Amino acid sequence: GDSVTQMEGPVTLSEEAFLTINCTYTATGYPSLFWYVQYPGEGLQLLLKATKADDKGSNKGFEATYRKETTSFHLEKGSVQVSDSAVYFCALSNAGGTSYGKLTFGQGTILTVHP
Amino acid sequence: EAQVTQNPRYLITVTGKKLTVTCSQNMNHEYMSWYRQDPGLGLRQIYYSMNVEVTDKGDVPEGYKVSRKEKRNFPLILESPSPNQTSLYFCASTDSPRPSGANVLTFGAGSRLTVL
Q: Given strand A56-59, what is the order of strands in its sheet?
């Protein structure tokens, strides 16, 4: 079945540092890929997405590129802020049948940014 | 404001005492789903519903029931809760799922359940 693997956390950075959170996936067909973010005490919200190979999703300074050859969707940000402290989830959605609408999530990566 | 509302947000209960977590969305979404979040495991789907009166099991349905009598509501029922159901629960919804799989889910704020 489908699966998503994220880098082990937690990740602790100083403000303005460069961020990379690795994400790799296993899936049949051509899944769509997502990064969701969960701020303390809140539900998950979409950060960015990509629906086909070589697509780049971007939002709020974060970027991720859908790499089919390496089955990866790594999240990057050039300069993190304290307000980026949250849990980040990589996820995929596969088309077809009753998989419609279902997201398969990675384990989540806790990011803490210090001033 | 478009949103998914869950209640209660926090609940402590005892083994065997039936409980219901309510979920309501105001976006006229057809698809609704329940997930549980556990440390190191991410979110796992419990049940989902493609439309009114249409529900099906997700990856971890044991010990849970759901119903979808109205489009906006999708309650999660624990008939006889056990300590291994202590978790953070999320309800989510989306419009008609697209064949491309590119649906964006809208999540509720979560319900933290502790079963003693």
A: A19-21, A75-77, A62-65, A56-59
C-alpha span between B70 and B2 (Å, rounded): 18
User: Cβ contact (<8 Å) for A95 and B33?
Assistant: no
The answer to whether A75 and A24 are in contact (CB under 8 A) is no
Whole-number percent of chain B with pLDDT over 70? 95
3-state secondary structure of B23: strand
Tokens 């859908």, residue located: A66
B110 and A101: CB-CB below 8 Å? no
pLDDT in tens, B68-80: 999 999 999 999 9
Contacts of A103 in chain B (CB under 8 A): 43, 45, 105
Can you tell me the distance from the alpha carbon of B103 to that of B19, in angstroms, rounded to the nearest whole number?
30
